[in-house]
């Protein structure tokens, strides 16, 4: 490849660029796998946290749409990756291609390589052969570092993506084969070019590097052939040694062969190889050399290596127990074992066959390896152990642990399937799951152990019986299935033999003692027929343990897996390992883990639908718009009632369904129908309802017989069905109950079309000015609306449009130059800048008065005016508009500091923003363009030097007169707010392509927003104007602080927090129970402000009343928090788990107070739906207070603590459901519910 003539240099820039792109691609793949690893890590931690908190019955089930999608994609990818075409011919099974997933990965890799080999080189000219040859040389050398990275046991790639050398080694082999192909193409094209020019011999004489290239190619060929399975297995130790030497020699050859510009690839590969070897050497020394061994504390400890006991079990199994191992490992990892006395130059990998001990059981650990005799080392090992007996100890060296097994404790059900010594992989997994190390999601484990001969698994059987007892103690359901398909069915011939095995085992992980001598001999029972029908059926009365099942036939693995998968409510992991020819229905490669999606049990609504004939949940959703019975139980009730009334009235149920409305209170019914709404002619409405009520069936499963008032029919739900359905639905959805993501879909019938996009602009304070009451109302209402639309499934973008531009910022910059304090600015930027602004304004006002006075006295004030603060501010702002770097930097600093401070304040209110926009972000060019367009379309006209919009000329009638004549540009050419808002609105639509945008602005801006929307329409964007909505609100009267009349939000919140803290201190006993009273007081204070703001309709003004809003009496924020905390207190005192509540007998809830609470919480999804129509926070707040009143009146009638246990569970399930709804409503409003 070292060709120095003109042709090669001509190709270099393109080739080096391709090399860069190759590594960008590798980095992209690694990055994608890192993201997948991060998501899986987050998901596993989330499951464990939910399990630790006992917050949900099935913590392994996906809890939201993202994780449901993620689980589905993971399952699809895993299943699609598994198929594999096996070559069944004896002696040729090694030709079996990789599984489909690996094949796809290889195809992707080869596409990249082929692209690099061919792009822009297949051009028929004088350089055709040379260009292709040189390109493939670059493709070859570029791949070399990856080859060595993938070969490393201490793999950097494996570390980043969370996998091990074993899972990457297959790719290492295929990359090597790909390099051989590209190197062959490289050499063949150069050789062909030389043959055509007839100077092959000349080139070889003149360019010695060619010989080195041929040598490197020969090594690639040798490595390819010797790496094939038949040759590799002949003498594995020799293969490893020659492979390492070949890899080193190959690097030297290509280093000499390639030009200097490409040698960095060789150094990259050398670095990867060196890093691996150094890491492994350091690890080996650290694990096998102890300078000060403590033999008194740990028997068997020695300075060099480890003392090991070898035990021959039967004719084919050797148990190696390595003592005094001072490192940890995870179930499923392996190590390399070197025993110089048996194999001087041999180190072999073996799975660690025991779980790591708990930290407090011993200062050291022992490792067990179970080695099955084959040939070579394993045969010599077994022969040595059989001859030596128990007294013989040998020195061994261990290197590891290697491997990156997944977490096993994040699944609800684990199915472990192993054949013969494959149990050395699965049994440690089981042991690790039964060692309490914190949260563990596992509830059930099914363990299948199969072998041809009993002696192959006798070592494991003795350990399994003790594990069953341990599983019982920690509440994990464990079933063990053992199948011996040939030979005798006993696992040990006598008690002594079993005890010996147990002795060998106990040193490793303190397990394995036989629980009963009868374990050694058990009758054989056919689990193949019994297990699928009843996986937990005891199969033999003579068995020592009712959880152990035995068989003498090959088990059907598909049937074995199906039982636990269908029984679980969460996610299942299936682990398979061993020589699987003794099993039916399994893949032939192992070990393999797979997460399996479970068949879900019927949902509460499905159970209800089964009780009501003629109704299908899917049919209901198709028939009625926005009807989602799975999410809203009352949708099902309305659909059923519509069907019943359609038969009675003859009216189309689609007309009846929307005519069924709420009642104002429960005593008036749950649903009500006004006869005139059905438009039935010929009879008076009051007579019609009487006839319909009489015809209503007495035995309707969901409704009592209706009552009639005037021309209304009121319907009352039956207690038992509504109680069972609603509580179970709330238990299922938890925080998602009340949300309906279908509302936010562009096409509810096709979710793949995506979500609608909503922009909510709210808060919008002015930089360096007080966060006044109007901004507070905008913040509270806007945050609520954003939450509301997000709960409805919209993609919500929250924008804070700051007042951050204008001449006042020039004045502010002057003030900071004169009076600014850096420390005060960093500590409280908003307050400090405001004080500066007030001060400079006062000076400017006094200066103007002085100039005016001198002007009246006849003095020449030209110079004074030219140097006045007002003129300086104008000039400074002109510098800003001209993009002066220094002026913009100072302005940006003020803006950024203010935003940082605002974020802290918003966080206290549970408010966040996706974008901090502002007047400054509107480009001057965009405003100029809009102004020109308005002139061209005659929307604006000149009036006394300014540009105005005369709506009376543009819009006929009263509407034009009401819109008045706004100015869009002043006489000096300065654009006003309206012009900026027009440009900003159109810019947002271009950027976000929103489906709707809401401006949350005070009612004082009603006219401004109407003018804005109408101008957008006149500009020809009627469809954009139709997407815009102004949500207005009234004023807050009398809002001031203890420190004066400046209305900073932080001061207001501090005042109410102080008031709440003082109120809390009045009850010393309860105050002492609160973990963080200051934080709780702050939360209560914020709740006080927000609830008072939302109590009335938005448009109404209200008076800020500190005493009323901080009271625990009446419908206030503190009372709402108290109601939530009281239910939390009942749950704590009841000491019931989520499982207890999930299994509660809800038929016990027959009291009127219990049924009424359920009737109320059933209305929550409808309340959210109605709020989308009203956009009034008070709609939610009124509902929540109605519910708190029902809860308060029920406590004396529905005692929880002290009741009979089953009744206590049922009542607590009721209150817990109410607690969920109350919390959901508070969070929707933007409140943070407190627990005490």
TrEMBL record:
What membrane topology does this protein have? Multi-pass membrane protein
UniProt-recorded Gene Ontology molecular function terms: arginine-tRNA ligase activity; ATP binding; oxidoreductase activity
**UniProt record, GO biological process:** arginyl-tRNA aminoacylation; mitochondrial translation; monoatomic ion transport
Q: What is the lineage of its organism?
A: Eukaryota, Fungi, Dikarya, Ascomycota, Pezizomycotina
Q: Where is the FAD-binding FR-type domain?
A: 291-408
Write down the Gene3D superfamilies for this protein, in alphabetical order.
Arginyl tRNA synthetase N-terminal domain, HUPs, Isoleucyl-tRNA Synthetase, Domain 1, Nucleotide-binding domain of ferredoxin-NADP reductase (FNR) module, Translation factors
- Organism, scientific name: Chaetomidium leptoderma
Give a GO cellular-component term: membrane
Record EC number: 6.1.1.19
Q: Which family does it belong to?
A: Belongs to the class-I aminoacyl-tRNA synthetase family.
Question: What is the official name of this protein in its record?
Answer: arginine--tRNA ligase
């Amino acid at each position: 490849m070292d060709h120095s003539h003109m042709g090669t240099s001509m190709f270099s820039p393109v080739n080096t660029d391709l090399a860069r792109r190759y590594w960008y691609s590798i980095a992209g793949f690694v990055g994608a796998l890192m993201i997948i690893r991060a998501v899986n890590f987050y998901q596993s931690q989330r499951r464990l946290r939910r399990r630790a908190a006992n917050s949900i019955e099935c913590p392994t089930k996906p809890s939201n749409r993202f994780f449901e999608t993620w689980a589905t994609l993971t399952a699809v990818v895993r299943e699609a990756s598994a198929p594999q075409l096996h070559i069944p011919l004896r002696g040729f099974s090694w030709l079996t291609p990789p599984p489909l997933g690996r094949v796809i990965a290889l195809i992707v890799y080869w596409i990249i390589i082929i692209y690099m080999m061919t792009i822009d080189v297949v051009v028929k000219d004088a350089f055709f052969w040379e260009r292709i040859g040189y390109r493939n040389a670059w493709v070859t050398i570029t791949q070399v570092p990856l080859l060595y990275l993938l070969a490393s046991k201490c793999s950097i790639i494996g570390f980043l993506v969370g996998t091990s050398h074993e899972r990457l080694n297959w790719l290492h082999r295929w990359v090597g084969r790909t390099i051989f192909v590209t190197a062959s193409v490289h050499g063949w094209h150069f050789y062909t070019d030389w043959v055509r020019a007839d100077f092959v011999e000349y080139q070889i004489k003149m360019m010695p590097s060619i010989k080195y290239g041929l040598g490197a190619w020969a090594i690639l060929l040798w490595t390819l052939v010797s790496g094939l399975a038949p040759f590799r297995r002949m003498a594995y130790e020799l293969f490893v040694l020659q492979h390492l030497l070949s890899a080193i020699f190959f690097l030297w050859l290509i280093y000499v062969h390639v030009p200097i510009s490409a040698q960095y690839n060789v150094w990259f590969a050398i670095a990867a190889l060196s890093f691996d070897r150094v890491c492994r050497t350091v690890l080996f020394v650290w694990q096998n050399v102890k300078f000060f061994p403590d033999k008194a504390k740990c028997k068997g400890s020695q300075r060099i290596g480890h003392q090991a006991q070898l035990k021959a079990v039967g004719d084919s199994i050797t148990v190696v127990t390595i003592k005094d191992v001072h490192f940890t490992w995870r179930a499923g990892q392996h190590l390399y074992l070197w025993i110089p006395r048996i194999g001087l130059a041999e180190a072999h990998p073996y799975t660690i066959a025991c779980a790591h001990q708990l930290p407090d059981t011993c200062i050291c650990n022992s490792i067990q390896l179970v080695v099955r005799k084959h040939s070579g080392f394993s045969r010599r090992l077994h022969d040595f152990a059989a001859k030596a007996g128990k007294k013989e100890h040998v020195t061994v060296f261990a290197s590891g642990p290697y491997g990156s097994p997944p977490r096993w404790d994040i699944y609800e059900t684990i199915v472990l399937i192993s054949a013969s010594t494959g149990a050395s992989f699965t049994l440690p997994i089981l042991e690790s799951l039964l060692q309490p190390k914190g949260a563990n999601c596992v509830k059930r484990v099914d363990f299948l152990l199969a072998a041809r001969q009993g002696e192959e698994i006798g070592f494991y059987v003795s350990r399994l019986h003790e594990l069953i007892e341990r599983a019982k103690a920690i509440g994990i359901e464990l079933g063990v299935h053992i199948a011996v398909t040939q030979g005798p069915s006993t696992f040990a011939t006598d008690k002594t033999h079993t005890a010996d095995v147990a002795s060998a085992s106990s040193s490793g992980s303190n397990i394995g003692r036989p629980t009963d001598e009868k374990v050694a001999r058990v009758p054989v029972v056919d689990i193949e027929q019994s297990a699928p029908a009843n996986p937990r059926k005891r199969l033999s009365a003579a068995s020592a343990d009712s959880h152990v099942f035995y068989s003498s036939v090959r088990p059907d693995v598909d049937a074995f897996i199906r039982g636990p998968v269908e029984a679980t409510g969460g996610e299942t992991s299936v682990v398979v390992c061993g020589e699987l020819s003794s099993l039916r229905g399994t893949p032939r490669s192992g070990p393999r883990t797979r997460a399996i999606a479970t068949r879900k049990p019927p949902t509460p609504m499905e159970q209800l639908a089964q009780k009501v004939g003629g109704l299908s949940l899917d049919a209901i959703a198709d028939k009625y718009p926005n009807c989602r019975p799975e999410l809203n139980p009352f949708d099902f009730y309305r659909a059923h009632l519509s069907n019943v009334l359609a038969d009675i009235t003859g009216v189309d149920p689609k007309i009846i369904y929307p005519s069924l409305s709420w009642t104002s209170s429960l005593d008036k019914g749950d649903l009500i129908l006004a006869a005139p709404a059905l438009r039935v002619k010929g009879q008076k409405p009051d007579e019609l309802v009487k006839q319909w009520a009489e015809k209503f069936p007495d035995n309707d499963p969901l409704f009592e017989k209706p009552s009639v008032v005037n021309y209304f029919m009121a319907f009352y739900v039956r207690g038992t069905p509504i109680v069972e359905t609603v509580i179970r639905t709330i238990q299922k959805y938890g925080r998602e109950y009340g949300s309906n993501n279908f509302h936010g879909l562009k096409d509810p019938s096709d979710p793949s079309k995506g979500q609608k996009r909503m922009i909510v602009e709210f808060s919008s304070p002015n930089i360096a000015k007080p966060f006044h009451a109007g901004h507070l109302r905008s913040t509270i209402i806007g945050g609520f609306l954003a939450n509301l639309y997000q709960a409805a499934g919209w993609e919500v973008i929250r924008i804070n449009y700051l007042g951050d531009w204008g001449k006042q910022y020039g004045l502010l910059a002057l003030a900071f130059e004169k009076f600014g304090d850096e420390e005060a600015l960093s500590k409280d930027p908003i307050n400090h800048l405001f004080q500066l602004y007030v001060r400079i304004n006062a000076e400017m006002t006094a200066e103007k008065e002085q100039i005016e006075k001198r002007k009246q006295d006849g003095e020449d004030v030209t110079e004074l005016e030219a140097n006045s603060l007002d003129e300086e501010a104008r000039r400074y702002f002109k510098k800003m508009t001209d993009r002066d770097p220094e002026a913009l930097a100072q302005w940006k600093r003020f803006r950024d500091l203010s935003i940082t401070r605002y974020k802290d304040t918003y966080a206290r209110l549970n408010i966040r923003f996706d974008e901090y926009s502002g007047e400054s972000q509107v480009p001057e060019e965009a405003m100029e363009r809009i102004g020109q367009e308005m002139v061209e379309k005659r929307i604006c006209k000149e009036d006394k030097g300014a540009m105005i919009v005369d709506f009376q000329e543009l819009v006929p009638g009263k509407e034009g007169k009401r819109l008045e004549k706004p100015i869009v540009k002043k006489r000096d050419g300065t654009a006003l707010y309206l012009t900026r808002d027009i440009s900003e609105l159109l810019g947002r639509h271009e950027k976000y392509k929103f489906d709707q945008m809401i401006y949350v602005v005070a009612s004082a801006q009603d006219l401004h927003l109407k003018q804005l929307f109408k101008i957008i329409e006149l500009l020809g964007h009627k469809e954009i104007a139709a997407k815009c909505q102004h949500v207005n609100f009234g004023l807050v009267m009398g809002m001031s602080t203890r420190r004066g009349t400046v209305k900073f939000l932080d001061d207001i919140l501090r005042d109410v927090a102080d008031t709440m803290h003082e109120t809390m201190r009045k009850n010393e006993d309860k105050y002492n129970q609160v973990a963080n009273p200051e934080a709780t007081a702050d939360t209560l204070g914020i709740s006080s402000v927000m609830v008072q703001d939302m109590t009335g309709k938005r448009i109404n003004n209200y008076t800020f009343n500190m005493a009323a809003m901080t009271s625990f009496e009446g419908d206030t924020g503190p009372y709402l928090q108290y109601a939530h905390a009281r239910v939390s207190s009942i749950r704590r005192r009841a000491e019931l788990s989520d499982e207890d509540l999930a299994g509660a007998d809800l038929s016990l809830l027959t009291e009127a107070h219990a049924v009424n609470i359920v009737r109320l919480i059933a209305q929550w999804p409808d309340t959210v739906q109605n709020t989308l129509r009203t956009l009034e926070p008070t709609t939610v707040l009124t509902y929540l207070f109605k519910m708190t009143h029902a809860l308060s009146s029920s406590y004396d009638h529905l005692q929880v603590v002290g009741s009979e246990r089953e009744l206590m569970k049922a009542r607590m399930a009721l209150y817990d459901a109410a607690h969920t709804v109350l919390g959901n409503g508070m969070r929707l409003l933007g409140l943070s519910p407190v627990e005490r």
